[in-house]
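Format notes (please read before filing issues)

Several people have asked whether sequences and structure tokens are stored in separate files. They are not. Every record keeps both together, in the order shown below: the sequence lines, then the token lines. Line labels are part of the format and must not be stripped during preprocessing.
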Amino acid sequence: MNTLTSLLRQAADYASSQPPLTSGPDMSRFESLLTACDSHNGDGAIACTILATTGPALDGEPTPESTLRFLRTATISDADISTTFGPAHDVVTRLIHQASNLTIGEAVALSAAFVADEMASARGRAWAKIDRVVWRSVRRTVRNAAEKPEGVDQQTWHNAREAMSDGICAAAGRDLVDQGVFSPQDYRTMTDPWRTVLGLTHLDDVAA
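Then the structure lines:
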């Protein structure tokens, strides 16, 4: 049983020890249950995105009982992770773990390094190259996994989160640079804020 499937079982145990669930397997409810058990490392958001992308549908009207049954029986396979986050899923999930524990200083520095016009231009070109499922999955997961540090204003946090999302999306498509599909310049533009503040997004960046 991998870490994410184990998290589902932990969430089932946690939910069964709490007051009765008032809703069925709604993704936002799953998010709160999984996040409560994930040690604040982003795995709850990762699991929720994977379930939303590849998870089995539940029969009939969702109930608290079916939610618990789902958490106790569902599995998240390596194939599910790859379908959701692409062939570089190990890199993507590592970066999401890092993004989930951002400090005030890192958020401010990422915002300062984020140049909206340049990023938007590179992002538009990358959108046409990187798998859409992976792109949406990364951005959804960063949005849900990264918590705004106390004391950071909304505009700063918006810029920081966009910088993180762009950096991780680019890292997810890093192999496309070597294939000549994804422009090295656009890759650098999208990853520079992350690399400046948080370090390498991908081991191959040493030679990028």
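For reference, the curators noted about this record: The chain has twelve helices and no strands. The first helix runs from residue 3 to 16.
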